[in-house]
Model the fold of this input.
Amino acid sequence: MSATQLIHPLLALLLAPLMLGVINRTKAFFAGRTGPPLLQLYADLFKLLRKGSVYSRTASWVFRAGPVVGLAAAIAALALTPFGGQRAVVNFPCDLIALAYLLGLMRFFTILAALDTGSAFEGMGASREAQFSALAEPALLLGLAAVARLTGCLSLGELSLSEMLARVTPSAWQHAGAALGLVAAALLVVFLAENSRIPVDDPNTHLELTMIHEVMVLDHSGPDFAYILYGAALKMWILGAVLIGVITPVRTGDAALDIGAALGGMFALAVLVGVIESIMARLRLLRVPQMLVGATVLSGLALVLLLR
Amino acid sequence: MSGWIDVVMVALILTNLVVLGSSRLNTCIRVIALQGVALGTLPLMAGPSVLPLRMIALTAGTMGLKGVVFPWLLLRAMRQAEVRREVEPYVGYIWSVVVGLVSLGVSVWLGGRLPLPGAANPTLAVPVALFMIFVGLFVIISRRTALSQILGYIILENGVYAFGMVILGEVPVLVELGVLLDAFVAVFVMGIAIYHISREFDHVDADQLDTLKG
Done:
């Protein structure tokens, strides 16, 4: 393990909440408001950590374990995520499946904790979260399979996320730009869906009937809620890092330059999400599966293009 | 150049999938117009770098007819016949898209088994042409309004055109113009037919035409 490999987890742990700040400022700019400070989420996290937690008498240990397991899974997934063409801290063959299912574990425990409260609204949110993520998963995995095919990492010994993304170079874009563009579009949809951003879910809504992610965490309070918020920020950073690994093919070999470019890409992505949230309305719940199937189709199409 | 042909091919595939997945006739018509324009650029990319005048004329004719005249005719027919704006499919939208993806897989498989004689044919052309023909047929049989059947017919014709353009490159202009003219007349006649169907029966539901027995 080299020093450059350690840079990314540290950057992510430090900067992940900032991404939400950038998104909110972009939205505020479009709406003509001043908006919350860039560091708002940090302040929220510190505030929550100093508070105490309240637990319902009907909730069991699952409810208490949910946030902790979620944050732990997010940090473990972060260790598997490569950034800016550098290798991840932990990388081994087929680690992309481990990454997908660590995020899955995080979601599973959030859902269990939501069901454990016995609240009808949280059960509804859990059901939606399970449905949408089941549809987003094939899009993510097929898209990564297409990238693996393009970069020639199909043999089991080489199929590691770090190796794949390190091989996405400008020449790969020249050679198969159409397919990579499709994968990038699919990953963007997955990014928006998994992080409950606007075309799928509105992070600002406070009407339980329409919420997905927010409704599941209504009963958490204090440090538990801080873990959930921080875990969600890390998850956004991880999926963003995978997407940025595909769409910013800066692989100069100079670690500082590559990581800098990827970091710039991350914040450009945050601005893009802010723009999308400002100019789009939330989709009807019935249309969301359609959009996710569309993303799967894009990934599948990219794979077909590369397999022929 | 072949990189750009791939981009156009992907655009053709995506427009077809949008047609399969969207619920509004208006959207379908506009997307098919877009498809016609993308199709019109094919001869520019597949042909030689210095274009003869007739190629340019053919490109302009294709784009004008498929990108402007057809949608205009169809939108007009829609307005006059007061068609409802939904597509009214027999097969749901998500399943239509899945069928589209499966037929794409089938056409890629078929395209791999049908190598064409001729030097420089991009390998994507045959699958895409087959795929467009499949999608055209599927739209014809799976949608209820008569207008969708015209859309299916146009997609099918676009598929045949894409195939000819990329594989042969040098289609005699007279043949190509003949095909374009046929398509034009067909769409024109079908537009009029829709108007009459809707005036006679107050709807353009092709499903109920089988009750017309002599």
Remarks:
- Chain B touches chain A at residues 3, 6-7, 9-10, 13-14, 17, 21, 93-94, 97-98, 100-101, 104-105, 108, 111-112, 123-124, 127 (CB under 8 Å).
- Chain B has eight helices and no strands.
- Helices of chain B lie at 2-21, 25-40, 42-46, 53-81, 93-113, 125-142, 146-168, 173-201.
